[in-house]
Amino acid sequence: MQLNKFRSAPPNASAMIETLRGLGYSTGAALADIIDNSVSAGAKNICLKFIWKGTESSILVVDDGYGMNDNELELAMRLGDKNPTSQRNPNDLGRFGIGLKSASFSQCRRLTVGSMKDGVLSCLRWDLDYLANNAYGGWHLLEGADPNSGGLIVENMPTPNGSVVLWEVMDRIVTPGFTEQEYLDLIEKVDQTLGMIFHRFIEGSYPRLRLTINEVPVRPWDPFMSNNSFTMASPEASFRTASGVVKIRGYVLPHNDQLTTEEYERWGGPDGWNSQQGFYVYRNDRLLVSGGWLGLGGRRAWTKEESHRLARISLDITNTSDVDWKIDIRKSIARPPLSIRPMLIKIAEDIRAKARRVFAHRGLYNKSTHIEEIHNAWRSEVFKGGIRYRIDTDHPAIKSIIESSGELSPQIKVLLRIIEETVPVQKIWLDTAEAKETPRTAFAEQPSESVVEVLTAVFEDLTLRRGMSSELAKKTLLSSEPFNLYPNLISNL
Questions:
Q1: What is the CATH classification number for the domain harbouring 320?
Q2: Would you give the DSSP letter of residue 446?
Q3: Are 267 and 289 part of one and the same domain?
Q4: Is 120 helix (H, G, I), strand (E, B) or coil?
Q5: Where would I find the H helices in 157-296?
Q6: Residue 126: in which H helix or E strand, if any?
Q7: Residue of 50 and 374 predicted with greater confidence
Q8: Which of 491, 486, 488, 485 is closest to 473 using CA atoms?
Q9: Is 112 in contact with 123 (CB distance < 8 Å)?
C-alpha cells in the first residue's frame, strides 16, 4: 500500500480570522449566536450590557449556565472545535463549533470569555491586533483578560457557575463619526431582533428564559399574532423526512383596518410588513429564518408582494436536519430539501391565496364572514390585455340611484363609465408601494355622523321607494360594501 506524501499547511491566524470577519453578521444576529451557546449551557438568565465610552465602548453577555473549566473553555475558544456532522444533543442550538468566534470577530477585534465553574474562574481571549503584529502567524490564544478590562469580567461574573462574553475594540460597530444616539438606536434594533429570534423562549407567564438588555427585559415578538382574534390559523401539519419531523402551520394576519395604530406598527416587525411575509423556520424553537419564500414558487420563485404581506408560515425542523436544509454558519439561511418542496408549495399557495383575499377585502375574509355574501361596489374583469375595474351596478346603493334617477339615468351611467375609465390604478399602486400601506377607504377616520347620513339615505330609498321591510333593508346593508363594517349604526336605523 502506497503512503500519501503530505505537507502541513496551517492557515495564517491573522489572515484567517480577518477573512471570517466578512461573514455578514448583523449585530443582533451575532449576539443571538452568543446567546445560543448560553441556552445550550442551561442558562435561565442572560443579561446583555451595552457600555458607551466612544471608541472604548463594549458589550457583555452574562449568563448563569453550567460554566466551563479551563480545558472546556480552551476547546470553546478554538475555531472549529466540533465537527458539524457529529450527532448533537437534541436541544443544542449550535452546529459548526465556530459561532462564538465568527460572530464576535464580525463585530470586534478583542474577544474575552470568562467562565466560572464550581467557584473556579477561567479566562481566555483572542486579540486580533496582537495576532496581526505576530510575524509568525501563530494561533496565540491569550490567557486572562486585557489589564484595562479585567474588572468587567470579575464584576459581572455569576457565581458559583456562569460565563461572561466581552466584546471590545468594536471597530465594526463604533466606526468614525458613530454617536451615542446611534448606539442607543443599535440597542433598540438588537432588542427587536432578539425579541423575534427567541420569542418562544421568553414569552408567556412562565418563560423558559429571562433575557434582558441593560436590565430591561427583551419584549417577545410573535410573528403570527397568535393571540389576536382576527388572526386566521390553519391546522398544524407534520410529516416525516429522512432527517427528522417537519411541522408546518400557516397564518393570515389581520388587516390593518382591524388593528390599532400601535398594533400595526409593532406587528409589522423589525423590517416592516412587506419584508416579514413568508416562512419562519425554527430549529428547537429558535428562529433561524424570519420571512421570505425559501426560493419556492412556480417557474419563477415567489417574491415579496404587497398583496401577500399578511401571509406568514411557521416551519419547525430539528437540529438533525441542518445538512438537508443547508443551514449556514450564521443560522439565517435555510433551503428546503427537494423531497418536501411540493408539500410546502401546496400549503403556501393556500395561505397566500387567503392572505390576498383578506388584503383585497380589507379583512372581511375571516372566520365568521364569507366574501361571497358581500356585495362589492367594484368588480374586476380579466381580459386579453390585462385587468380592468368596473362599478357593480347591482350594488344596492348604486342600483337604487340608477333606478330612481328617471330621465337622468343615461347621464348617471355616463358618469359611472367615466369614473371606471379614469380609476388611477397606477397611482394607487405607486402610493401603496411607496407608503407601504393600503390607501384608506370605507369611511376611514370619518365621524359616525357622516356614515349615518349616507346609510340613512340608502335605507330610506330601500324602504320607502322599493318597499322593503326594515329588517330586509338592514340585511341588505349588512351585506353591502362598505356598510357591512358598521353593524351597530345599521341596527339603530
A1: 3.30.230
A2: -
A3: yes
A4: strand
A5: 180-197, 199-202, 261-267
A6: strand 120-127
A7: 50
A8: 491
A9: yes
Helix, coil or strand: residue 21: coil
CA distance 471 to 491: 9
Question: Domain of 17?
Answer: 13-217
User: Comparing 4-8, 80-84, 128-132, 312-316, which segment has the lowest mean pLDDT?
Assistant: 80-84
> From start to end of 302-404, where are the E strands?
311-317, 378-383, 386-391
Q: Count the domains in the chain.
A: 3
Whether residue 79 lies inside any domain: the answer is yes
Say how far apart CA 234 and CA 272 lie, in whole Å: 23
Same domain assignment for residues 192 and 242? no
* Residue 167 placed within a domain: yes
Q: What are 223's three cell numbers?
A: 410573528
Rounded CA separation 348/249 (Å) = 9
Q: Collapsing DSSP states into helix, strand and coil, what is residue 96?
A: coil
Cα separation, 316 vs 23, whole angstroms: 25
| Amino acid found at 190 | V
* pLDDT mean over 79-107: 66
Confidence of residue 332 (pLDDT cuts 50, 70, 90): low
Predicted model pTM: 0.75
Per DSSP, what are the bridge partners of residue 116?
A: 121, 162
Percentage of residues of the chain with pLDDT beyond 90: 44
Please choose, from the candidates 267, 293, 268, 296, the residue with its C-alpha nearest in 3D space to the C-alpha of residue 279.
293
Packing angle, helices 470-478 and 448-460, rounded to 10: 130
- Return the exposure string of 339-361: e unless at least 16 CB atoms fall within 10 Å of the residue's CB, then b: ebeeebbebbeebbebbbbbbeb
Q: What are the DSSP calls for 382-424, one per residue?
A: EETTEEEEEE-TTSHHHHHHHHH-GGGHHHHHHHHHHHHHT--
Rounded Cα gap, residues 300 and 137, in angstroms: 47
Q: How is residue 88 annotated by DSSP?
A: -
C-alpha cell at 392: 357593480
